[in-house]
Amino acid sequence: MKSEHFVERNELFAAGPSEPTMVNPARRMILRGMLGLGGAMALAGCGTATVGAVGLNPRLTGGRISVRWLGGGITEIATPDYKQIAYGDAWIWSNAGWSRFNISKPPEYATKEGFVQYVAGKKPDAVFVLLTHDHGDHMGDYFEMLKVLSEAGLPVMTTGQSDMMRKGLIPDFKNAGLDPAKLVSNGGAGMNFGGISRDGTMTARLVPAVHSTLLGYPPAGFMLDIGGVRVYISGDTDLYGDMKMLGERYQPNLAIVCVGDGPFTMGPEDAARACQWLGVSHAIPVHYAHNGLVRGVEAGEDFRRAVAQIAPAIQVTVLKPGDTTMIEA
After folding, report:
1. In 48-201, at which residue ranges do the beta strands (DSSP E only) sit?
2. Beta partners for residue 223, in sequence order
3. Which of 36, 158, 166, 267 sits between 20 and 30 A of 126, alpha carbons compared?
4. Cα separation of 63 and 52, whole Å?
5. Phi/psi class of residue 189: alpha, beta or left (left: φ > 0; alpha: ψ in -120 to 50)?
6. Which pLDDT value is given to residue 261?
7. Please, which residues bridge with residue 87 across strands?
8. Which residues pair with 205 in a beta bridge?
9. Phi-psi category of 264—alpha, beta or left, where left has phi over 0 and alpha has psi -120 to 50?
10. Tens digit of pLDDT for each residue in 119-149?
């Protein structure tokens, strides 16, 4: 309609100030027909683009990965041969999420020295550190982690929201003696929402999270493709309606979701709804029992029960810190 009015208005002005403003009815009908045909073609093109956009991210099948929970919201995700390793956030040896389970950290996660020895022993082709936001229980060991891995000659790369990476954290990179142009994806730029970062054979896409940050840059989650499996990493977030769109757009196989509730994130029931909306076949609850303000060790089973009620086809794996599970797409 707007285009039709634009054409007719141009016709009126073309008549000149001293000429009649009548438009030839036959010409108007021809123009309307042309506009209608163009609009139909445009709508058809939009439909094709929509189908194409969905087709760009088909659900992955046949893949296999290992997932190890490191307490709090932190996970280690790897191909079965550990040639490709990803870390969902970076709070490792300082992580307080083990004690409420009465589990002692194994040597590979108890100190930075033990950690770098452990990773080096895997002989990885790529180590990808995905930073969702700047709260201490997600990036408490971030710069030390990057430093010890890079100084050991390991192929480490990191990514996160672009403004946080190329501005907000620059002083911290410099204080740690790290060059973000060499360590941050896309030449130091990181990525913004809708963007892509790659490391080795892994691909990460930035997706929204409803949360807050200390520096004021947007919090995020990730869609990570690794080992033929697409993993949604929630970071810290509340439930939000566009999770349905994320499910349609990316069709993830696995959701690693925060369930801690309390003052900071969604709880088990809303996390179960998130998994339903995302359309995943597997789910792992994280981000609980790591401080006194969030739900305790029971939150994992609370999540399992909630999923069983609203999306019983989803397979839930509840881990303890240090546990590893294998996920097949």
Report:
1. 64-69, 75-78, 84-88, 126-130, 156-159, 196-199
2. 205, 232
3. 166
4. 23
5. alpha
6. 94
7. 76, 129
8. 196, 223
9. alpha
10. 999 999 999 999 999 999 999 999 999 999 9
The predicted-structure confidence for 142-183, as pLDDT tens digits, reads as follows 999 999 999 999 999 999 999 999 999 999 999 999 999 999
Cβ 265 vs Cβ 288: under 8 Å = no
Tokens encoding 183: 């360590």
For 226, the enclosing helix (H) or strand (E) is: strand 220-226
Phi/psi at 233 (5° precision): -110, 115
Q: For residues 209 and 77, give the distance between their C-alpha atoms in angstroms, rounded to a whole number.
A: 20
The candidate with the shortest Cα–Cα distance to 234, out of 112, 119, 132, 106, is: 132
Q: Which of 30-34, 263-267, 270-274, 285-289 has the lowest mean pLDDT?
A: 30-34
H-run or E-run covering 35: helix 25-55
Distance CA 42, CA 36 (A): 10
Q: What confidence tens digit (pLDDT) does each residue in 87-116 have? A: 999 999 999 999 999 999 999 999 999 999
What's the half-sphere exposure (Cβ side, CA atoms, 13 Å) at 44? 6
Using the structure block, give the residue that is written with the tokens 């009815």: 25
Cβ neighbourhood burial of 277 (10 Å; 0-12, 13-18, 19+): buried
Q: What are the structure tokens assigned to 247, written together?
A: 């499910």
Look at residue 45 in the predicted model and tell me its pLDDT: 34
Task: Give the end-to-end CA distance of the chain in Å, rounded to a whole number.
Answer: 47
